[in-house]
Each structure stands twice: as structure tokens, then as C-alpha cells.
Amino acid sequence: MVLRLFCVLMCLAGSAQAFELPHDRGTVSLDAPPERIVALGWGLAELLVELDVAPAGVADPEGYATWVVEPELAADTVNVGLRNEPNLERIAELDPDLILAADQQTGLVPQLDRIAPTAYFKMFSADHDNAAKSREVYLALAGAFGVSGMAEQRLDALDARISKAGDRVRAAFDGPVPPVLPIRLLTPTSVRLHGENAMAVAALRGMGLTAADPGAPTQWGFRQARVEDLAAFEDAAVVHFDPFPQKDALFGSDIWQFMPFVRAGRFAVADPAWTFGGAFSLGRLADTMAAALTRIAEAE
Fold it and tell me: What range(s) does the Fe/B12 periplasmic-binding domain occupy (predicted)?
């Protein structure tokens, strides 16, 4: 009887330590939670950090620091190459227990699987809600690590952060807030307009604000246009996400100065925020857009 009880307890202890991570191509099953994880997508790296899990390696951590900004990666995070061309040798040298791959590594999964068990997540698709997908992946990771309760609390705090950002904007305008057009200027002649299925638009809706150009859903949530096409948005508040190294060349041009939203004082530059990140990128997107929109309201 004692022996049987001991065996049952040992089985329960073993199952409690097991790691089961469902992903878009199956399930990764490990005997214990992984200690050395390589994250090849910035959004996946972000989700790990928000679970208090520090990835051992990340693709282009310097780019992450420039574009994603928060949450910060650990200083000793190893650079494992580019997101669309990771360094397989460097990944193997890290001897990871688990690799997390996303959209830009779709064709590399078989090679990655030969290095370590690989979980693949299609984070961006026109066939699903990108923001909801990231929350789903976050909760799957949390469940595998056994911290679902903490994850739910952090998502609740995220939603509250986004809602408060919207409150700040409404207070600044002290009246109706114009529809908002989030953009990223690429060159002095080309621009991305963020619309349906964009993380920036998901942030706007969480703020209780209206997107100026939602359009039909696309995989990445944007459409590319010519800068002169922005002239059609006469009534919108236009918010551009930095960085944009060529801003002086564009902002000093005649075509830019004649844009209706520029002449009306409804244009502002937001601090860097990653528009293709994970669920928690919405918090930074909301805060940076709120700060930009507040500057517009205060200038009126």
C-alpha cells in the first residue's frame, strides 16, 4: 500500500513538471520546463519576457531594442542572426531545450527541429485576428510553464493600461476625438497605412478610439501607399511611429506642408513602438499614440 502511494505521488510529481506546448504544427512535449529557449520572432521574445522567462538567444536583439523597445531583453541575450535568416550554427552552439519560431521562419522549421524541439506559431494572418492570436499564444506559453493565473492578471493590467491611454486622449481633446490614422513613413515617397488587423488599430480600439482607414483585413494589417495619398485624410489625426531617418527631407517639402492634416495641426510623431509585436506591444502603442494625440489636442 505504501509502495503504491509512493508510485502515485511520483507520477503526479512527474506530470506536474512536464512541459506541453501546443502550437500551430502540433505539440512540443518535454520532461521538464525548458531552461534555454531561443526565440526567433520578436513578438515571441516579448511574450517570454512578459512571463518572466529570459530567452537565451533572440534574432537581432539590437533591432529589437530599436523597434520593440519594451519589454527589455537581458543584457546577455545572444544574437542568433536575422529573423529571416537565423544563424543555425549559433543556435546549435547555445544547445537550446526549445526553439520558438514564427512567420519569418516558416520554411526553416524542419532544420530548426533537428537542433531542438521547435514550436511554430503563425502570428500574422488575414484569416485570424492578429491581436487575439498573440494573446492565445501567450496563454499557451503560460499554461505550459504553469503560470496561467499570473498571465491572466498581466493581460488584465495590459487592458487597463490601454483603456487609461484612451482616457488621457479624451481628456486632452475635451470633446470628440477625430478618427486616427496610424502610419509608418518608409521613405519620402512611401508610407504604410495601418488598418484592419493591425496591432496599432487593435490598440486604438482598446483605447475606445476610431481608426480612420480600417479597410479589409490583411496579413500584417497595413497597406502601402504613396505619401501624396495621405492628402485624402482631411479630417484625421495622423500619427507616425518613429524612427524615420529621412524625416527632414519629407517634413520640409512643399507636398508635406500642404497636407490638410499638417495645415490643421493634426499630425504628430510618436516614439518608437513595434507595430508587428506581441500582445503587450499594444500597451506601448497605446501610450505612444496617446502622447502624440495629446500634443495635437494641446496645440489646437
Answer: 36-300
pTM of the model: 0.91
**What is each CA distance from 296 to 173, 201, 217, 244, in whole angstroms?**
9, 19, 28, 19
The strand pair at 98-101 and 190-194 is best described as unpaired
Per-residue pLDDT of the chain (300 residues; tens, 9 = 90+): 443 443 444 444 444 569 999 999 999 999 999 999 999 999 999 999 999 999 999 999 999 999 999 999 999 999 999 999 999 999 999 999 999 999 999 999 999 999 999 999 999 999 999 999 999 999 999 999 999 999 999 999 999 999 999 999 999 999 899 999 999 999 999 999 999 999 999 999 999 999 999 899 999 999 999 999 999 999 999 999 999 999 999 999 999 999 999 999 999 999 999 999 999 999 999 999 999 999 999 987
Which of 265, 289, 279 shows the shortest CA–CA distance to 168?
A: 289
Identify the H or E element spanning 286: helix 281-299
